[in-house]
């Protein structure tokens, strides 16, 4: 849906605002993993709630979201997913070592 993608100087990004945010949120992954920044798993799960709530309330037609909100909740969710992946990666590594 073109209206849900971010347009910069006439160029519309191929992903929607939410997915663009999630992708940017994944950029936290190497910092968490390689620099050993520790965040608890529950925080990773919690950080996904704003996006889920934003998407769910829109899908249920309680309200209409906007690209700024999709983008921001996407970044937060991407960070949360990075925390979840790093937590499980460290768990697996600690089992193997
Ligand atoms: Zn998307």
Largest sheet: 2 strands, antiparallel
Count of alpha/pi helices: 5
Mean pLDDT: 94
Give the DSSP E fraction (strand runs of 2 or more residues): 5-15%
Q: Order of strands in the sheet with the most strands?
A: 1-2
Overall geometry: elongated
Please identify the structural class as seen in this structure.
Answer: mainly alpha
Head-to-tail CA distance between termini: 46 Å
Poorly predicted runs are none
Q: How much helix, percentage-wise, in residues?
A: 55-70%
Write down how many β-strands occur, each being a DSSP E stretch of 2 or more residues: 2
Radius of gyration: 15 Å
The run of helices and strands is EEHHHHH
The ligands found in this model are:
zinc ion
What does this structure look like?
- The protein has helices at 17-25, 29-34, 41-46, 49-59, 67-96; strands at residues 5-8, 11-16.
- By secondary structure, it is mostly helical.
- It has a domain at 37-97.
- Strands 1-2 form a two-stranded antiparallel sheet.
- The longest helix has 30 residues, at 67-96.
- The chain starts with a strand and ends with a helix.
- The mean pLDDT is 94.
């Amino acid at each position: 849906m073109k209206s849900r993608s971010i347009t910069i100087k006439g160029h519309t990004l191929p992903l929607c605002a939410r997915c663009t945010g999630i992708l940017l949120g994944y950029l936290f992954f190497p910092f968490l993993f390689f620099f050993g920044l520790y965040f608890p798993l529950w925080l990773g799960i919690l950080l996904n709630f704003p996006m889920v709530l934003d998407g769910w309330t829109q899908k249920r037609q309680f309200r209409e979201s906007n690209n700024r909100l999709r983008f921001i909740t996407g970044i937060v969710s991407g960070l949360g997913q990075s925390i979840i992946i790093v937590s499980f990666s460290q768990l697996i590594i600690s089992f193997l070592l």
